[in-house]
Design goal:
Bound molecules: flavin mononucleotide
Number of domains: 1
CATH class: Mainly Beta
Oligomer: single chain
CATH superfamily: Electron Transport, Fmn-binding Protein, Chain A
Distance between the termini: 41 Å
Structural class: mainly beta
Helix content: 10-25%
Strand content: over 45%
CATH topology: Pnp Oxidase, Chain A
Order of helices and strands: HEEEEEHEHEEEEEE
Largest sheet: 7 strands, antiparallel
């Protein structure tokens, strides 16, 4: 028998993560973005990262047709961006100034780190799809990360 769903959530909630916003464009070139904590480094050589996208998310069909995506790792003063990119907004980019990576995807201004990737694999897994990207560009700034822990936002004390 698989684990009880409530216990499963409680167990996973004890795994603290950073928070990213994944951005990609649809076939019409329109920007889409979504808050994602299920992000991980995967391989150093080649440089690979992965993320898990829920099949019901509006980002899921975008990630099926996109060739590339960008990742913005949020800094500890960017909780509002996490809420914006996980909330119910018609256009999550409205009134938001963004930079573009070399592959053309939106990078969130002042993110702690940004990277841009080419999609090299998609693996269906349960109610999510694992998207694997090869990293082609990146940038960092100094600062502290925004964290997610037990269903809420958290901050490093030092
Ligand atoms: C902190 C945080 C982390 C999240 N991490 C993920 C994730 O890793 N994968 C995912 O599919 N959804 C994740 N979500 C939920 C999506 O951001 C949210 O369901 C999605 O943006 C809903 O978009 P839609 O209305 O466009 O479908 C997360 C939400 C928050 C607030």
């Amino acid at each position: 028998m698989p684990i009880d769903p409530e216990l499963f959530r409680a167990v996973l909630g004890r795994f603290a993560t950073g928070i990213t916003v994944i951005t990609a464009r649809d076939l019409d070139g329109r920007d889409h973005g979504m808050t994602v904590s299920a992000f991980s480094s995967l391989s150093l050589s080649p440089p690979l990262v992965l993320m898990c996208i829920g099949n019901e998310a509006t980002m899921a069909p975008v990630m099926r047709t996109a060739d590339t995506f960008a990742v913005s790792v949020l800094g500890d003063d960017q909780e509002a961006l996490s809420r914006r990119f996980s909330g119910r907004l018609d256009d999550r980019f409205a009134d938001l100034t963004v930079d573009r990576g070399p592959l053309g995807n939106a990078w969130l201004n002042d993110a702690l780190a940004t990277m841009e990737c080419r999609i090299v694999a998609r693996h269906p897994a349960g109610d999510h799809v694992i998207v694997v990207g090869e990293v082609h560009a990146g940038a960092t700034r100094d600062g502290r990360p925004l964290l997610y822990y037990r269903g809420g936002y958290a901050h490093l004390e030092r």
